[in-house]
Amino acid sequence: MKQTMDEIRREGLAALRERLGRAGMLRFLQQFETGSGDYARDRRRWAKETSLDEIRRKTARRRPRKSG
Question: Residues 33, 21: contact at Cβ < 8 Å?
Fold first, then answer.
């Protein structure tokens, strides 16, 4: 018996929910969302407006300091 696409989708979601739980299923599905916008254009604008010193400051704040 051939399943419809809707039946396959429902069974797939049920299997994910059963195996991963509702939150895990949602996190898994979020991996496949398509974004919006133009990443290349946004990256060029960001690079033009952001200095190397600013990038260094931002990354330094995120890194844990080494003790020793």
Answer: no
Q: In the 8-state DSSP scheme, what is residue 64? A: P
Give the pTM: 0.47
As a whole number of angstroms, the distance between CA 39 and CA 31 comes to: 17
DSSP string, 1-35: -PPPHHHHHHHHHHHHHHHHHHHHHHHHHHTT---
pLDDT in tens, 4-50: 999 999 999 999 999 999 999 999 998 887 778 888 999 899 889 98
The total number of residues shown for the chain amounts to: 68
